[in-house]
Amino acid sequence: MTENWAFLKEAKPFIQENFQAAGFEKPTAIQEKTAEWITEKRDVIAESPTGTGKTLAYVLPLLNKIDVNIKHPQVLILAPSRELVMQIFDVVQEFKQGSDIKAVSLIGGANIKKQQEKLKKHPNIVVATPGRVQELIKIKKLKMHEVKTIVLDEADQLLVPEHMKTIQAIIKSTLKERQILCFSATLKEETVQLIKEMTSEPEVLKIARSEEEAQKVGHYYLLCDQRDKVKLLQKLSRLEDMQALVFVRDITNLSIYAEKLAYHHVDLGVLHSEAKKAERAVILKSFEQREFPLLLATDIAARGIDIDDLPYVIHADMPNEEGYIHRSGRTGRAGKEGAVISLVTPQEQSMLKKMAKKLNLSLEEIVYKQGQLHLAEKQYKN
Q1: Fewer beta carbons within 10 angstroms: which end of the chain, N or C?
Q2: Measuring CA to CA, which residue among 340, 306, 300, 323 is closest to residue 186?
């Protein structure tokens, strides 16, 4: 219960009210563990599975620290994709209700003049993609001298060679005594080392998905030849209550699958990183309203997408370990039930089994029979 959470007891009334209004009874593990550190201005490196409340873990304590009398940004939240920026921004908007805190979102591809107008309204919190922030700093439209905290959300995606210089330049433009918070579903050891060099004696936290939550997401695979994957997707799309985010390797494969499925009259949506922002928003909304059963996506395109009550994630192409965690985390969010189905060739089957063992996942084979999915009968060898 929330009365046992020291942070919330001492938080400003609007935060307490919004937390309860959102229907939360208690904090998640990451929220409980990091709130105190963030309040105490410590640097934090936190890894926690997708869907465990990472965004609120930093948003609540940061909202609590904002001084509305300071007319410059105090918090800068950076995220790798437009969707993730908008998603974080929505959370900030929801939980700042009842306060005078102002927030803006700044994304690449949007009109920079309009963004400059937004900045004239003196926001306290800026949620943005790194490239656009750097552009606005360069033209002296975004003042960084009052920024006390920088958040790197999905830090593993931000601290890659193509973003590294930008991120370092942004951090350099802020106060020397700044606080850096890094949150991600997966953090490689080398990423942690990179962050440690940028931070000052950070608190490092790694949270595994609780067993109770892990059991709510089933991990399954369907064995097939590569050429039969489209046929299988076609069959799966006809299942009752089917709503699945289908992951494919790259834009080339995305086009191939989409074309073949459309030829077989399968209703679907396609999400790739080259699509325009408005176009992507329309596709996502239609999918959320269940206007079609399958949404095909590449990994980059699906970063940061949060679809409530998504029952299925399908891996049409085998991901690596990190990809599997990120992709699969789109279902079973916030403790809800979900199923992850991998379509695998015999060769991919052995790779998947090794991966499941390493990730400590219980994996079961399923088969498609008479319009339904069934658990495969186990073959016992004498």
Answers
A1: C
A2: 323
